[in-house]
Amino acid sequence: MMTADRKTLEEKLKELLGDGRVSLNETVRALHGRDESYHAERLPDLVVFPETAQEVSEIVLLAKETGIPVIPFGLGSSLEGHVIPYSGGITIDFSLMNQVLEVRESDFLVRVQPGVTRSQLNKELKKYGLFFSVDPGADATLGGMAATNASGTTSVKYGVMRDQVRDLEVVLADGSIIHTGSLAAKSASGLHLNGLFVGSEGTLGCFTELTLRVYGISEETAAARASFPTVDAAVEAVVSILQAGIPIARVELVDEPSMEQVNRHSGTGYPVRPTLFLEFHGNSAGLRQDIGFCEEIVKEHGCERIDFETETEGRNVLWEARHNLAYAFIHGHPGRKMMVTDVCVPISELAGAVHHAREAVDRLGLIGGITGHVGDGNFHIILMIDLNNPEEVGKADQLNEAIVSYALDRSGTCTGEHGVGIGKQKYQEQEHGPAIHAMRAIKQALDPENIMNPGKVIDFKQEGSEK
Amino acid sequence: MMTADRKTLEEKLKELLGDGRVSLNETVRALHGRDESYHAERLPDLVVFPETAQEVSEIVLLAKETGIPVIPFGLGSSLEGHVIPYSGGITIDFSLMNQVLEVRESDFLVRVQPGVTRSQLNKELKKYGLFFSVDPGADATLGGMAATNASGTTSVKYGVMRDQVRDLEVVLADGSIIHTGSLAAKSASGLHLNGLFVGSEGTLGCFTELTLRVYGISEETAAARASFPTVDAAVEAVVSILQAGIPIARVELVDEPSMEQVNRHSGTGYPVRPTLFLEFHGNSAGLRQDIGFCEEIVKEHGCERIDFETETEGRNVLWEARHNLAYAFIHGHPGRKMMVTDVCVPISELAGAVHHAREAVDRLGLIGGITGHVGDGNFHIILMIDLNNPEEVGKADQLNEAIVSYALDRSGTCTGEHGVGIGKQKYQEQEHGPAIHAMRAIKQALDPENIMNPGKVIDFKQEGSEK
What we know:
Chain A is an alpha+beta fold. Chain A has four domains: 3-93, Uridine Diphospho-n-acetylenolpyruvylglucosamine Reductase, domain 2 (2-Layer Sandwich); 100-216, Uridine Diphospho-n-acetylenolpyruvylglucosamine Reductase, domain 3, CATH 3.30.465; 220-326, Alpha-Beta Plaits, CATH 3.30.70.2190; 334-409, Alpha-Beta Plaits, CATH 3.30.70.2740. The first copy, chain A, contains 17 helices and 18 strands. In chain A, the strands form four sheets. In chain A, strands 15-12-14-13-17-18-16 form a seven-stranded antiparallel sheet, with helices on both faces. In chain A, a hairpin with a 4-residue loop joins strand 17 and strand 18. In chain A, helix 1 (3-17) packs antiparallel against helix 3 (53-66) and helix 9 (231-243) runs antiparallel to helix 14. The first copy, chain A, is globular and about 70 Å long. Residues 462-467 of chain A have low confidence and may be disordered. At the A-B interface, strand 9, helix 8, strand 11, helix 9 and helix 11 of A face strand 9, helix 8, strand 11, helix 9 and helix 11 of B. Chains A, B: This is D-lactate dehydrogenase (cytochrome). Chains A, B: One of its GO terms (molecular function) is D-lactate dehydrogenase (cytochrome) activity.
């Protein structure tokens, strides 16, 4: 952006928001020029801190007038460069819109502003005996989680972010403020915008309010760790548990190299074996029967040892250890950056996919552990890369491509939960085929000037033009 | 359509499909000129019977060339005029595309053609110990159920049609054949087209293949009938059951006038009282605990009598009776047509909404019963109308408007599961506000010539034009 333009825009934004909520400060901009990934940084021209949907609408209209991008920003915990403003522009930081607006206890609904974090919401909900189910590990904002269709450990039972969104208030590229849903548990009215906007990564609009589904905390919860001789055996046990129809609440795979990192980082003494971390929610009688059945199944698959945690404290230690795995890898490998693969395959293809992934990592001589939300067929290779070593970076790229190709060849997806951002763009045509033209047509219809987080999800250049 | 045009189109279609699969026969056209609703009939110009997606694509291209509409048709069991070709055109009947193509047992997925019916699919799935959860009552086709986002009695536990669709093969208005999803249980790749196309009522494209989620038949099933002194007491019991976190599989309300019809039509001797029909799925121990808890709750709400059906036969009688309720009303009132309201409200507003509905029916002196999928906040008034009595028709319209206004004032929806068709169009702006512009923009982007089932869902005239 030209300096003169920036000056005018800055003045107009300050008129709108006051001096204190418009920043050109280098440090503030730097904080908004990266996420938690290995993707290169790029600073926004300005950062603004709106407090209302109306302000967001006016910011978008100013951006539209000036023809520069707007990039919605939660906490920057995304993993594929979603919030990095590679075409410059205005970053809209939602940290001042962080109120839990309403808990509708008997409707199992909560209305929140986009800057509310997952843990903040759960703290509030606990007072009502309720919880919000989606748990991607990071304490992300709910606006960001909706924008990327986050999921994580609990989606095998409760579903992904898209399944929890009952309504969104969205500021569109023309400044209009719309609602994508209602408070009804189901609807067959109009075209379904909720699902389309969830996962749109800021490319269709900015979320200014979310109405989300919440759940009652179950009567009983039990967690377990089960160690297996091989990753294959662990994965096959998961498939059998699902086929038995046991409504498991979480089932996470952690391979041997990852278990080492877990023990080192969290001070636990868990067996260094391919391990399933499991959780069950239900009534006391049903839970006992589920657990008994599950124990039989894992033993049939060669489970060497299963340890239960029925007390809250033990469960918390177990899940903390699992959740801190990414940070364990980061702290264990100073100077290296994390690169994470994220494919999801049909569950019948999971054992083969994990096997293929392990072989590929070993063959390329990379440092990496495999972990995953295996109940959904979604797994990650956490790679620790020396970005100053071009050969290693090349190998990591090669690995990612091999993993993605394997998944796409089996009707899977290149990203189960991290989203596209810029990192998964190159696979969009391969995955979606001619459907990509429909996606581009929708983007162009809703954002004809391409100002909403441009260059993310898919290459939204106008079809047939070089714009 | 001009006679000469029709002649040319007919010839081209016969060239494509052969004489036997293109019909101008009056009787065949009449069968495709109505649905199960009270909406006025209108015959299509031609009816075609394709066997492949490629043929559907070529039919759409011929329609595009000629500039005439295409209307996808399953079995005509819709309730808001969805398949009635008010602008004429080609009706695409999917009855020859009725194969279950693949059962992916360990992925809990099934791939079907759009003309497969719900009961046909369940018959096939039973061999694998699996079932398809969505049950709208009518034995509709799966293509039609996806087009209208059908739901019904089981969605309180398993979700609506949209929740079951993993992938659709769709022929778009430009003849291209796309896939809207993949076989992965979750994905954060691309824009989410699955959810957008489900419920689009043929206005965005024709479905030529569906990949659907299926479930394992649960270890145990139990059903119950619970009679209450008032509708309010029954509804309040449902709210309490949900708040207790009991994972109920079905919970249906049937009011007194409807219970009379049930007994008369099905030869049952159930108490003529406001009644809840309940079903529980689970493991044996969990089920016993759920049922015990449920029994306590309904008694706290004044339940006069609860009868359990644990045997398959008794359960079948119970659900047959419930499902045949609409037909019971029809057979009980010869010469009258059925008109059904279909609002859905937040569960906290349900008791008030049902109360308001009963009062309005009585005040207007109409014949009608209230029934509903009350676990979702969705209820119907089944009205039996004498279409030759303009005053009565006027009163029915007045009632429908009052019911819809009540729901929309409480952030509900004008249609929980029947869809918009033409019957609910007049409420679209009131329900969706400025979001309707986004819906129109999407329709225009994907079907610029407005040939896909035009005039349905919302008035898709181009914005700002009189076209």
